[in-house]
Amino acid sequence: MKAKDQNQVKGIHSGQGIGKVGRILISAICGTSMMTVSSKLMSLIGQNFSEPHHLGKMISRLDPVFSKNTDKALGWTAHLGMGAAFCSVYSSLFDSGVKPNLKNSILLGLISGAVGMGIWKATFKLHPFPTSINPGRFYLQRMPAHIVFAVFATLSYRLLVQQKEEKIQSSPQCRLTE
User: Fold this and answer.
1) The dihedral of CA 107, 113, 119, 125: what is its sign?
2) d(Cα 94, Cα 136) in Å, to the nearest integer?
3) What pLDDT does residue 44 have?
4) pLDDT tens per residue across span 134-169
5) Which of 171, 139, 163, 155 is nearest to 90 (CA)?
6) What proportion of the chain, given as a percentage, has pLDDT over 90?
7) pLDDT tens across 67-110, in order?
8) What are phi and psi of 46, to 5 degrees?
């Protein structure tokens, strides 16, 4: 592949579709949404595991002037923000040569689950009015939830990168230089 084509693959030229930030945000939305769906499904055992619910409640307890809809929106915003932070790390790992495959996404989910558990523990400890949870169940549920997050974030990231590469390969510039 010629240098010009390599630069295109790296995303230096604009107009090649979704950029790195877009891939991170879309991956974060996919991963976070599926994580929340799985948490809601796991909530059927009797405890609310919904991350946006707990985040929204704690935000509203800090400033009770927010409406219930604002609490929900702020809870989702905080949760998506954390998802984007995790996806930024994943993207850097993938760019450095880690393959975005199922095995690695499960490993990333386990690591993210441990990190997420630590973040939640610190949040509940430092917050003046935390939501009430069964800590054993809540923290145990962090692992499968983060595995779901990592698998769907990785899958969406991988699909977006493949789509970008297919666009580049089919571009007239790439065909003219082959």
Assistant:
1) negative
2) 33
3) 93
4) 888 898 999 999 999 999 999 999 999 988 777 666
5) 155
6) 63
7) 778 888 999 999 999 999 999 999 999 999 999 999 999 999 99
8) 120, -10
- Ordered by start, the domain boundaries in the chain are 21-176
CB environment 1-35: b (16+ within 10 A), e (fewer): eeeebeebbebeeeebebebeebbbbbbbbbbbbb
What residues contact 164, with CB distance under 8 A and at least 6 apart? 11, 16, 17, 18, 23
- φ/ψ of 45, rounded to 5, equals -80, -5
pLDDT value for 118: 94
Q: What tokens appear for 117 in the block?
A: 């558990």
CA dihedral 21, 26, 30, 31 (to 10 degrees): 0
Question: 76 to each of 10, 31, 45, 51, how far by Cα in Å?
Answer: 32, 13, 22, 8
C-alpha span between 141 and 113 (Å, rounded): 9
